[in-house]
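Throughout our pipeline, every protein is held as a single compact record rather than as scattered files. Such a record has a labelled line for the sequence and another for the backbone structure tokens. This encoding replaces a full spatial description with a residue-level series of whole-number codes. For reference, a complete record is included directly beneath this paragraph.
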Amino acid sequence: MIDAAGCGPPGVCPACQHPAERVHSRYWRHIAGLPVNGLRLLVRLRVRRFLCDQPRCPRRTFVEQVAGLTEPRRRSSTAARSAMRSVAVELGGRPGARLCAKLRLYGQRTSILGKLTAPPVPARAPRILGIDEFAFRKGRTYGTVLVDVESSRPVDVLPDRETSTVAAWLQEHPGAEIICRDRLMAFTKAIRQAAPDALEVADRWHLLQNLSTAVEKTCRRHRDCLRRPAEPEASPPLATPDTPLLARIRQRHAEVNELAATGLPLNAIGRRLRLDRKTVRRYRNKDLADLLASAQDRGHGILDPFMEYVQHRFHAGCTSSMQLYREVLALGYTGGYHVVHRYVVTIRRGIAVPDRSITPRPRDITSWIMRPEESLSTSDTAQLDAARSACPEIAQACDLARERATPGLQEQPAAGAGGGEEDRAETVELLLRREAARQDAGAGDVLAGMGEHRLEGRGENHSGMASFTARFGAWHPTASPGQAWYGAWRGPEGPAESGSGVGRLLR
């Protein structure tokens, strides 16, 4: 603690700017400063309260301020508040409070957040406006972030993603000529209401996400083509087990479609069944067979590589769970006995799941298709070639995805530089429409919201940056368009090896 006292010339009244002549009183102020040598610093400052003798001045007294140290009604020094403001910008509330505690700064969560001030919102919207949603709390509360695409800076943040909120903002801030948005229908309705003359642009990231979804749907639809042909001496196919997960899917599918047949909207069905709107839409649009097949493809168990061996030995006469457990242990099995015992029980009942290790999951095939060929391992390439040979439709989807999407991302021409971008957009939409022809409900929903949108060369960069900035608060205004977003996950040495298919494609 440091004791100090104000001893300068009399201060100036902040209301009338007239210098004071008389001292009213003195008192102590406690000012928290920057830490010194790892210790917290507290300045106990004795200040003077002056009288203002101007008869027309509304203030009767005022307190002197020490330049560079104090401000009215502040208990921290100017330098300490600047440091806490920087911490709040980079980390936010609770993480910032933990860092301040380690740096020996006086700052709690609420006081740190109080250092943030909202920048002024321009009266007119930027010429190219990016709109994207982000989650305050995933699955519960969502907001909307608006970005100036040309300057790569956020413009405003809205408290929700409702049509009325976005439409009201667009009406209060006219001037947007091009609006880059995602597929959320609330944004579509808001733009049609408040800015009908603006050109709506679907960015590359969301179009590639649509393409990835369409490819995965194709792989799921032709899952049976990937099954290994049964050998002559093989046993007949086993029935699908009636697990609690499958029973719940059947029940939800029946309930959702029963309520949808009455004309209830998705939000009302979701509130009645306590389901998210997207979940209700998936159950309404997808066939029950696809939902059940998707549930059965959820991951591989520790016994999966040995299921074929266990089934073969069981049908050969070895029905002892303990004996089968000892045999698979010798083959490299690392799980417990009860896993083997439960699977043997399903074989006895005739409801065992066939060996899943011989069939790659549709999501894995989609990842191999969407990733660059040079990033695939030898095993992945071999399995993808086997899937292409087994199913012509998967081979056609792979050719379409790689023919247009991958070259379009390796070379990113600016918008208006030619017809290449529009050609790629038409190819993406062509694949989606082919999937829509095969599966009316599922892929038709993918096409919802696309309308007549065309592909914009720079749209995806800023829509993605908007979501990243709103969630993590890290923004680099000096970076060129796209570098602030891509640099955050690519790193100095380029993209990581792991990641989703779309993430690898966006390199």
